[in-house]
Amino acid sequence: MITSWLKSLNIPNLPDEWEVKQLLKKKHINVPEGFILKADTDILPEKVSFPVAVKICDPEILHKTDAGGVALNVTEETFIETVTSMRLHFPEKRLLVEKMSSYKGIEFILGGLIDPTFGPAIMIGAGGILTELYKDVTFRLVPLDRDEALRMLRELTISEVLEGYRGSIMDIHTLADCIVSVGDLITEMGNHFNQLDINPLVYSEGKWTALDGMLVLNKGINTPG
Amino acid sequence: MSIIGKKQKNFRPFFYPGSITVIGATNKKEKVGHIIFSRLKTSGARLFPVHPKEAEIMGVPAYHSVKDLPEKIDLAITTISAERTVPVVRECAEQGIPAVIIVAGGFGEVGTKGKDLEKELIKIHKEYGIEILGPNSLGVFLPETGLDTIFVEHGDKALSGGGKIAFITQSGSVGTESLGLASNAGYGMRAFVGLGNKIILNETDFLEYFGRDDKVNCLAFYVESIDDGKIFLEKAKEISKNKAVIVLKAGRTRAGQTAVSSHTGKLAGSDRVVNGAFHQYGVQRAFDEEEICDASKALSMLPQPEGNRVAIITAAGGYGVMCTDYIEQKYPRSALEMAVFTSETQQRIREINLSFASSHNPVDITASADDEMYAGTLDAVLNDGGVDIVICIVFFSPPAATEKLIDLIAERAASSKKPVVVFTQYGPYTDQMLKRFYDKGVVGYSSIYRTVRAVRFLVERSRIIHNLGGNV
Q1: Which of A152, B101, B410, B412 could form a disulfide with B139 if both were Cys (CB 3.0 to 4.6 A apart)?
Q2: Residue A129 above 50 pLDDT?
Q3: Chain B nearest-CA residue for A123
Q4: Dist CA B86 CA B88 (whole Å)
């Protein structure tokens, strides 16, 4: 699965958001419904269920919001205008068009890295743009089982939102399943894996949904077969 | 270097050598070689000093070189300089000596030249199989036999009583000084190992070795690096089903990744991963020398609590209040609760004590209480099914309190399945009183903070055993 995905990348070893989300989907992590609009493709609004998010889809643009490469809550009326304007600012770039996900409550971050002493590790915690400020995160080595994933979640200060805090409805067990799946994914990627951020990961319409995903692969590792 | 798939290493010569050669033994009193040799004279092993000129060292016949040694030797200890060590270790290997402790520094820790010497030593190990502890190692101390390859034991011999802790340390000084201090209030070790630069034998080897040793129930490590991180943790997880494993990992190395572009990478530093990984694999973490000694003392001596409900008995209200505050502090991995007594327990406490004593937790029996009141209260609290752990705050200065309390508490602690932890302060005699408690098998500390922290280690350990499905 990993091998064929690696081979399919638009730029070798440099997956973009769309490609990362396709990989997550294979691991049963929900992602917003969407499609890629190439620079030379006609705009087809009839394919879209509005409102949508329109994002620059380029692995080399790391901070696309800061660069003006993200438009949210785009309606049918403003869609063509938005796409035209983005194409003007980012010629030749692919655009990712996604159905807006509605969600309430806290945003999570689910990530991974290679620790120099212990090897591949996974992180879960309070996400969103302030994640590095809150620092409410916890780590484990991968792979891990569901009980361990649940223990991770219960260590977080924000864990109470998963257990009905002030009437919140966010399912702790399916979030634990996401942690296990991403842990397995990191393990399967072996030497290819370097860093991963799924941020934010939100609870939308009864499903944990990855609204953004960034995956860094190790360069110079040959794809087998 | 992976140790998986290798045959089990032979550690016996390090701990139970029948014969020892000391290369660098000397009659010059200020030299390390002299101190070590004089220490070893009481170890019971046959000694063979090697000295290029002298005919005898401290009255023991000396040999001019390793090649001249008259019989097969179990253990070599070298105290000579780094440069001269390499050829001597080769000679030892050629003579079939299975194990060597290299005391000298001046190897990898000082730069490239020292690193090259270490590479030579590794080559000798690969060629002959000689096991190497160090270089830059304080060697081993085994209270059971009195084997002390270098100044681990201080002049007061406070560690000679032994115990169930294996203390393995990368830094010699951290080991000897912190243990020296801990021993003032009582500390019991099965063995001490100074890893030094650990070019061959490392923390994972001794984790395995002491994991198999029936006389050890608690392993404590001070390390600045872990060579085979994941392997160490996997073995620790197996061992921690039955024995406590505590690691003080000093030095927060930055993640080695060239570019940390992710939030995850930035949030990790490296320390949060260590925290999570230790927890996942049943390893308990200490952050300084006092904490590792306090934790290992509690974990090696006390029974495992069934739960986290703590009762406090105190003769001074203020200490009971402070203790309650610490217990109620949020600490997700080892949450503690104040026990709630049954009405029978409260009734019993009222019957025993003076009318103005409190029968709720914390039980303040007041400074007017005598020894019998203290002991009766402890009985009542230990008998309460809603109590998992008891903290006894003990003072010897109130007029009605006497030193008999030590025996009274010790008897009750020994016959209960619940851990009883003592806090006491008695001015300049504090450590002395704690040592007297220790000699009767009672664990105690000289501050409320340290007492509650030790209790948290016990509760955390219970949770680890539960999570790993192990047993004590």
Answers
A1: B101
A2: yes
A3: B264
A4: 5
Say yes or no: B42 contacts chain A, CB-CB below 8 A. no
Q: What CATH number labels A2-15+103-217? A: 3.30.470.20
* Domains of chain B, each with CATH number or no CATH: 1-136 (3.40.50.720), 139-301 (3.40.50.261), 303-468 (3.40.50.261)
In angstroms, the separation between the Cα of residue B333 and the nearest Cα of chain A is: 7
- CA dist., res. B209 & res. B18, Å (int): 20
- List the alpha helices (DSSP H) in B286-403: 289-301, 317-328, 343-352, 371-382
Report ipTM for this prediction. 0.89
List the alpha helices (DSSP H) in B269-353.
271-280, 289-301, 317-328, 343-352
How many alpha carbons fall within 13 Å on the CB side of residue B388?
17
The verdict on a CB contact (< 8 Å) between A139 and B253 is: no
Tell me if B277 and A138 make a contact (CB, 8 A cut-off): no
Nearest to B268 among A113, A154, A194 (CB): A113
* Mean pLDDT value of segment A201-209: 96
Fold of domain A33-99: Dna Ligase; domain 1 (3.30.1490)
Contacts of B261 in chain A (CB under 8 A): 62, 195, 214, 216
Cβ–Cβ of B226/A139 closer than 8 Å? no
Q: What is the average pLDDT across A190-200?
A: 96
**Regions of chain B with pLDDT less than 70:** 1-7, 151-152, 253-259, 270, 470-472
Over range A63-89, report the average pLDDT: 90
- The distance of A116 to chain B (nearest Cα, Å) reads 6
Question: What pLDDT is stored for residue A169 in this prediction?
Answer: 84
User: Can you say how many angstroms the Cα of residue A71 is from the centroid of all Cα atoms in its chain?
Assistant: 17
